[in-house]
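Need tokens for this chain, all 276 residues.
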Amino acid sequence: MDRATQQRRVDTFRQLHHGEHILVLPNAWDVATARVFQRAGFPAVATTSAGIANALGYADGERISREEMVAMVERIAHALSVPLTADMEAGYADTLQGLEETARLVVVSGAVGLNLEDAMAGEASPLYDIQLAADRVRAVRESSAAAGVSLVINARTDVFLANVGEPETRLAHAIRRANAYREAGADCLFIPGVRDAETIATLAREIAGPINVLAGPGVPSTPELERLGVARVSVGSGPARAALGLVQRIARELRERGTYEGFTTGAMTYAEANEL
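Here are the structure tokens for all 276 residues:
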């Protein structure tokens, strides 16, 4: 992908966080699923680290190598005509220098942005010190700009997802972290694990930048999230796990009943799949 095309996609994706309506961002795990989402009319697509890792035989949580993850991101980015943002977990690096290399590789892949978590990979749940986590955001900002494309950074805090601290402290903690990441250069602030409307509204009001909420059971609908002030909603590994659930049901049907409804009803045609 030439740099001018990539930069146009970066600009488009960044602007989508400040539009009149919420950005609904589906998460793909290979070229075919990304093309399905693009054909459905979504203005941008994201990857899911868990979906890609699982498809390649790994558990989620940076068990997959950085090189394998970037290779899939590159495949998807070059197959789309809309912006692609990459879920790069905690950056596949413990050091700032390693993180800078991750950012450079994402630029080279043709993606327009990345997710960056503040949870330490391989640990039970502890988060990076807030200053170090902000420095990591800053490193991605500076490294990607030096590589020629200032990536759209979706800085994620796992305060709620990992149940960090006492329940009554989590809201203020998440707000403090998100604002620090925003000051360090993040474009959007991702707070997975929140579900109730009151907490989401407070996050949208108190965080000085667009926020991203993870869709799932108990999370308000996208029109309601838009009303609450959310700029972006993503679905994470949900579609990938739903697809695996379908395959599991097909396996049971074949094994237990010897019938074929699971993959003959509602299936995409052979020709349509090839067109992807």
